[in-house]
Recover the amino acids of this structure.
């Protein structure tokens, strides 16, 4: 989890620009830390963007799938529940990945922050 968070922060630093860089670092760190393990270590910046975009735009229960052409890894993100809190919307999600032929699954919850980024809860 720590490695995933660090990698996510580093990748966020590389893709963001100006004030967007800070948001990208935060989002990358949080998403990287949340997925951790083998999945987090094998996601690059474009994979992390797919996760963030899925949390933001995909309807509950609808899978978002992609194959990373550089790594050959397959990912599926499914927002499984959307709910409101006093500070804004939150989403439970599942990430299924096939990394080097091995299946991995992570479940989590993330909430949208005032700056539009998603913060993993717990």
């Amino acid at each position: 989890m720590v490695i995933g968070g660090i990698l996510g922060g580093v990748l966020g630093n590389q893709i963001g620009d100006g004030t967007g860089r800070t948001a990208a670092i935060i989002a990358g760190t949080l998403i990287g830390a949340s997925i951790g393990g083998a999945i987090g270590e094998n996601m690059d910046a474009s994979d992390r963007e797919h996760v963030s975009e899925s949390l933001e735009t995909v309807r509950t229960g609808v899978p978002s799938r992609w194959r990373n052409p550089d790594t050959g890894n397959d990912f599926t993100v499914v927002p499984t529940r959307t709910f409101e809190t006093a500070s804004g919307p939150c989403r439970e999600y599942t990430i299924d990945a096939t990394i080097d032929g091995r299946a991995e699954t992570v479940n989590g919850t993330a909430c949208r922050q005032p700056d539009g980024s998603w913060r993993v809860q717990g």
Remarks:
- The CA atoms of residues 78 and 101 lie 20 Å apart.
- Residues 2-120 form one domain.
- Residues 19-35 form the longest helix (17 residues).
- The chain has one domain: 2-120.
